[in-house]
Amino acid sequence: MNDWSARDLQRAEMKVGLGPAKGKDFATSLGPVLVTTDELDGSRATMLARVNGEERSRGELGDLHFPWGRLVEQAARNTHLRPGDVLGSGTVGTGCILEDGDGRWLEPGDVVELEVEGIGVLRNVVGAATPR
User: Fold this and answer.
1) Average model confidence (pLDDT) for the chain?
2) Which long-range contacts (CB under 8 A, 24 or more apart) does 49-54 make?
């Protein structure tokens, strides 16, 4: 899952106490397949992020701050989870361009690949921004 967070916008929003608002307002990509916790328990798998073929991030599922069971428990508080609901675990520890601090933001035409061992590669091309 790639939630395409606009961390540059989110950073500005967080400074004034808004929380992530417009920084999370535009897209989510899923694939190449979805798995259930009985297929992949979330305890071990290497995750890679590449931009234009260059590795920009690497992490381990086992390093999640909370185990999947706890994430599901929290998601189910005060609501009913149903078959087909999709839960994401959050950003891989080094998977955020903002955290890199090197100013290499995504540009139109960039190819972003997110790979999780045992699942596959989610590949998307960054499109041009459209005015609202």
Assistant:
1) 81
2) 49/92, 49/95, 49/112, 49/113, 49/114, 49/115, 50/111, 50/112, 50/113, 50/115, 51/104, 51/106, 51/110, 51/111, 51/112, 51/113, 52/110, 52/111, 53/111, 53/113
- Indicate whether this model's pTM tops 0.85: no
**CA torsion, ordered 24, 25, 27, 28, to nearest 10 deg:** 50
CB 108 within 8 A of CB 126: yes
What contacts 90, CB < 8 A, 6 or more positions away? 64, 65
All structural domains of the chain: 7-125 (3.90.850.10)
